[in-house]
Each structure stands twice: as structure tokens, then as C-alpha cells.
Amino acid sequence: MRTFPSVTAVVLNWNKSVETLTCLRSLETQTWTRLKLLVVDNGSSPEQLEQLCAGLGRAELIRNTTNLGFTGGVNIGLTRAAADGADYIWLVNNDLIAPPQTLEQLVSAVEGKPEIGLVSPVIRNADAGDEIEFCGGLWREDNTFSTTSDLKTYFKWQAEYPDRIWLVGTALMMSRHVFETVGLFDSRFFAYWEDNDYSIRSITSGFNNVVVDSADVFHRSGNQNDNPISKPPHYYYYITRNEILFLKKYARIGLTLKLTLWALDRQLRQTERLKDHPTLAEAILLGLWDGICGRVGSYAPERQLSMLGRLVIGTCRRIVLYTFKKSR
User: Fold this and answer.
1) pTM of the model
2) Beta-strand relationship, 35-42 and 60-64
């Protein structure tokens, strides 16, 4: 008699109880019946936590007293799910809606295929006519990344570079064996770039990452990508710092310098665009400095860039301007 694999869905919550409960309601409709729901609360306020607890339903709750970031919160969920014996672990962002067939399609696509590492559905933008937001990424030999919202492009990448597909962490599924092989997310990233890192670690562990084109989730992003000033300072800090940390972790010495200069150029241009929003621009500069210094941990909004940091960033700006003057 066939035994159907068990799945634990891990949903991270941080002061977004309404979004999390909406996500949970969609997970409760999944046709894959061997599904356990696990919510990891990352130090939400008492009011938010009370609202979350009132609507949990059959989901189990793990409470962190402080915000451990995406990596810290997810690592707690991964560890619990594996300890409980889940055959698969599905990381689900709390701003997602999953149609009833999604999990069944994911499990069916990978069951009995031990060569598959990380798995993602097609991610659609619920706030933009359900257009595809992400359906795969390519990790290039020069340690840069490309993403696509076009399935034909993804299929081409999958055929030509099956061992170089990277996936975002928005709705990432893996078997317990893959998790036990690849390990926990790198907590130094806290949030952002951790999925790039985890995808590479899956690849270097001998697995191929895949997108299941028959499975969809709907991301309620609010079209924030179109409005830079709608993003909070911590976003700019982490996305900037962690790119530098990532490059230092993976790129060869000469390539690290080249790619870091590209990153500096891009982020310094961003500070120019955000000059009328000094808090956001300052977060970028602080992220650059902490990335260069290798500082990890959570963003502290009260911190200011030191005089030494401003001197170094100013020197970097002059180097970048000289290096890229021909392209300007």
C-alpha cells in the first residue's frame, strides 16, 4: 500500500497577522492532505500576536521573543519540521495565496527524483493581473544572476544549464534529505540574498533546482517594486550589505573586486536617486560600509555611518567614477 509523503509548511510572521492568517486559510484548502502547518512568529508585538493566535486554526505556533530575521526564523521552522519527520518542508511567504492544487503538483513533480534539490512553483503577482513575477533564475559562471518571468526562457535555461538554476525563497520546497544535506540558511544574511546562497549550496551539494510550471502561487506584493520610496530603510540596508557579503563569500579575488565595484556603482547611483529621502540613502551607505567590513546582524535604524565609513565610501565613490567614467 502506497504511503503518501508528509509535508510541513513553514510560514514566518512578523507583525503581519492579517496577511499570515489569509495565507494559512489558503494552505488549509490544499488537496494534499498530509500537510502540517507551522507558523514561526518572529517577535511580533503583543497586539499582533494576540490577533494571530485567535485565528491560527490547526496551525502550530512557535514564538520567538525577538526578530531573528528571515534566516533565523526559517531555520527554527526547518529544524522543527525535520525533527518531526516531515518528508518535505515547504517555506511559504506569508503574503502568498496558494491555490488548492499547488502542493500536490509540487510533490508529484519531485517524488521519486532524488537528484532534485530545491523546488518552486511559478510565482504570479496577484496585484498585477496575475502576471508571472518569477519563474526561475540562472546563476552564471561570473557569479552574477539573471531572473526571468518568461517560461520559454526558463525552459531554455533548464535544458542548457540544469545545474545552475537558482530559486527565490518565496515558496521554496525541499525534501528532508535535501535539507539535511544542504543545512540551515546562512544566518549572517538575516534577510535578502539568503536564497541566492541557499540555491548555490544546493547546487554544490549535487542537486538540481527546478521550477514546476504546473504549480502557481499568487504573491500580494502591492507593486512595491515600482515605487522605490515605498520600501523601508531596512530593505535597502540588507539588500546592499548582503550583496557585498555574498560576493565576498563566493567570488574569486579578482572577480570579487570587479563585481563589488559594479555593486558600489549601482548602489551609489541609487543614493543619488534617493537624495530627497535621506533616511533611505543613509541606509544604503550604511549597508555598503557594513558589507565591506563584514558586519552581520540586524539593522539598527539609530546607527549613523562613522566618519571613517564616510571617508571610505567617499574614496570608493571616486574609484567607481574613475572606473566607470567611459560608460557614463
Assistant:
1) 0.91
2) parallel
Half-sphere exposure for 172 (CA within 13 Å, toward CB): 23
Give me the half-sphere count of Cα atoms (radius 13 Å) on the Cβ side of residue 63: 10
Please give the DSSP secondary-structure letter assigned to residue 274.
Answer: T
Domain 7-224 has CATH 3.90.1170.10: no
DSSP 3-state assignment of 268? helix
Q: For all residues of the chain together, what is the average pLDDT?
A: 90
Contact 233, 280 (CB under 8 A): yes
pLDDT in tens, 276-324: 888 998 999 899 999 989 999 999 999 988 999 888 888 877 777 666 6
Cα gap 122→238, rounded to integer Å: 25
HSE value, Cβ hemisphere, 13 Å, CA-based, for 286? 23
Q: What are phi and psi of 155, to 5 degrees?
A: -60, -35
Domain spans of the chain, in order of start: 7-224, 227-327
Q: How far apart are CA 328 and CA 325, in angstroms?
A: 5
Cβ atoms of 52 and 132 within 8 Å: the answer is no
CA distance 12 to 61: 10
Q: Give how far Cα 192 sits from Cα of 130, 216, 239, 246, Å.
A: 24, 22, 6, 10
247: CB partners within 8 A, 6+ apart? 143, 256, 259, 260, 263
Phi, psi of 236 (to 5 degrees): -65, -35
